[in-house]
Amino acid sequence: MQSAKSIMLLVFISLFACVAPAFADEDSGIVHETIYPVYDEVDLIPTVRIDYAKPRIVVRSTYPRLTSIGANEHVELFNQLVSDLIKEETAEFKNRVAEKQGLQKNLAKSDIKNELTIDFDTSVVNTHDKPIMSVRFNIHGYVAGTTRPYHYHRVLNFDLDNGQKIELADLFKIDEDYLTFLSDYSRKVLSKKLRNKEMIRNGTQPIPENFKRWNVNPTGLLITFDEYQVAPYVYGTQTVLIPYVALKQFIMPDSPIGLCLKQRKKCLRNHLLTGGFMNEA
């Protein structure tokens, strides 16, 4: 038992070195982090879970969990969506490992390390007690026998007031070609710091697939481009922050962001950031 506690403590320290100490639930194996008030009686608790499986699989999941005083179906739906995402990524990783079983049989046991790490960053933009939860999940995996680890992101944008996922198209006017604007803006920013113009051009084509990793930020829309999308692997993830002022003509007035911009000072100053990615662009 003491050994298990030590392992969990080390993992916790590595993932949350910059925050206050946590407490562990010994029965479930779940570590609870600092509580972040979201609004009214709803709080966000970063939660760490470590799962083990054969062959030599370790999955470390750090995810946001909402709690509320009393029943709240929107909170429960958010938590279910997060849980489903973690399960999907875990299952996908196990499939990747299974595909390499033949290769791993020829490796020394000490060289077989199949590790998946999922963590997250969150921004909460509060439109006067109507919070928008914007989560970016950072997924890092390594399968023994492959040449290098892989990294990618998934996002969850959720309107906690009405209990619905927010899609990118929900933010913009129907008759506006917002994808072309996002494409042109991103291409201009990326071209200033990256050399491979062909990759930039292909990775920023104005199609939904290229802009599916987006998050709301207190100052703008953050677009994430995963490795290989706009630059070679060595350059890693690229991000572009598009200020709301640049998007104003395209945003639907009654969309979650449109409503926020109508109360800009109150809305954008009342936000919660539980990670650093929102300011990395």
From TrEMBL:
Domain of life: Bacteria
PROSITE patterns with a match to the protein in the record: PROKAR_LIPOPROTEIN
Signal peptide per UniProt: 1-24
Record has Signal as a keyword: yes
Database matches in InterPro entries: DUF3298 (IPR021729), PdaC/RsiV-like_sf (IPR037126)
Bilayer-spanning residue ranges: none
Keywords: Signal
Pfam family, one: DUF3298
Domain DUF3298 intervals: 169-244
Protein name as annotated: Uncharacterized protein DUF3298
